[in-house]
Amino acid sequence: MKNSSKRLLVAFLAICMVGSAFTGCKKDDNSSSEADSSNVSSQPADNSTDSSSAGSDESQDFYDQPSYSGDTVKLQFYIDNQNPFGDWRKEFIKDKTGVELEIVVADSEKTNAMLSAGNLPDIGNYAVSGDLSQAIKAGYLVDMSDKLDKLPNVVKNAPNAIQYAMDEKSDGTGKLYGIPRSVGLADIYAVDTTTYAMNIRWDIYREAGFPEVTSFDTMLDALKKMQDVHPTAEDGTKMYAFELSPESDKATNSNPWSAAFRLYGMSGFQDVRGFLVYDIQNDELKPILDEDSQFMNAVRWFWKANQLGLISPESKTQKNGDVSSKLLAGYTLTATPGSYYRGYNTDERINAEEPIGIYPISFEGMCPTVPGESLTGDQSWMYSISEATKDVDACLRVIDLFYNEDACLTLYNSPKGELWDIVDGEVVATDDYTDFYNNSTYTLKNGEVLETGKFFFAFGLHTDWEHTVYGKTMRQSEWPEATELMTAKNGLIDLWAEHNPGYSVPSERYRAENTLVFRPAALSFTRNYDDDIAITAAAVGEQIITYAWNMIYASTEEELNSLYNELVDKCNQLGIEECVKWGQEMWADAEALAEKYSQ
């Protein structure tokens, strides 16, 4: 079945390639392959059957094409994001596809109820932990494998994602029931790596006299000095280096105790389901309960931090939202992986006479560990079409739009002509984007207000997909104009540069010292626990979560070691070795799949 599905995809790719020879381009001679990208479809503009938003006259730019002229169709779109989708996005999609979307916000309980009842919205993700089998077996989803001619942008920009979904996400049928979103990822770390680093309050680091940091252990010593000189925030709230939370702890996650990710994400490691941790730089997979594993290093590091009084006593009970609120209120000395600090670094703070803000610090062992490229997209979230929909073609038009490079420039940013525009054949940020960057809000022409961090959604192409004609990423926060805004007037970066001679921004140092680590492609091909081992894994994971928290709060090192030995004994009794063996085999399979779909 896999071979037949691959032949099918190859045939459709050939059709699309032939079609591209007859659909012209507006760009230079080297961009002839861009025809399908600048037209939602390469099919003739017959709105009774056309899968696109408009005709494909070779002289037409995507944004100059007429609006879809067929009847308007109302469809439900089941999405996982809590941010407002925005009427401006709905209007753009309606203009290009003739589809008026009703947004239905997803959650796991709602998904399970829908799958039980067989009542699925027209378009959405109906995978349970990345697995579509339940919906496929029940006959709830439309097979798109015989409709690829109506998905030209998907075929062109996500062929590996299609093939992977047919091979591995079709319940063994070889058909196409879901298309992974967020395909592709560029190396876009021109200035820094945002959350993926050891980020500290540089104003307080300066106040402490810039204590030398040469390792993660001496980092804790420096943080203690920072806390000593700056024990409270402006409103009197006690300062801590670390605000943790158990909210993301889950026994069957690849990383049951979520706090470990904070060290993994700045030291070159990746958690792997099966109670394993992968040393990316040294290509070494190790059980997390090995005494010298990075998991146990994380436990001991946080234990040392707690011994120094650097961990908030509320860490074991608070929510993730509490952690974020404290960070933005200025109550923490650090922002480690998983904590997003940009909202704290306001223009007023970073350009104060004595700059205030959070920024990375480099030392031996600090290796920002960032997402790598995924040619097969995010397999945990796939666009599927409900068998109950009244208009499959309309659903296909919407999905295909999400893989159109030109469309994504709008979907990720704003309507063309507001925060961005095309000038003399180049995509550029406008003056309004400068205002948006400086003020964190922008009022669209239709009256809607965009706020930094509150209008993001994921679509078919990854935010960092680089447009093949314009050379810009889909999301303009990574454009050179944004980089210039970030660095042109930034006292915090200037302060960082003073203490990192020879480098103007952190990414320069990371690249020079070869400390920027990309997560392995195999990560995209890992899978959930098999049914025959899931119960064992859940029991082991619960013990690991409980003991990890108890270990970091241990009164003495002897107590920590005693708890560790207890944990190992309990997990051995529960059958952790079986889970580890499963994980090792699963990772080997994932690496093989990564090799296969990276060709």
UniProtKB/TrEMBL annotation:
<feature type="signal peptide">
    <location>
        <begin position="1"/>
        <end position="23"/>
    </location>
</feature>
<feature type="compositionally biased region" description="Low complexity">
    <location>
        <begin position="32"/>
        <end position="57"/>
    </location>
</feature>
<keyword id="KW-0732">Signal</keyword>
<feature type="region of interest" description="Disordered">
    <location>
        <begin position="26"/>
        <end position="68"/>
    </location>
</feature>
<dbReference type="InterPro" id="IPR050490">
    <property type="entry name" value="Bact_solute-bd_prot1"/>
</dbReference>
<protein>
    <recommendedName>
        <fullName>Extracellular solute-binding protein</fullName>
    </recommendedName>
</protein>
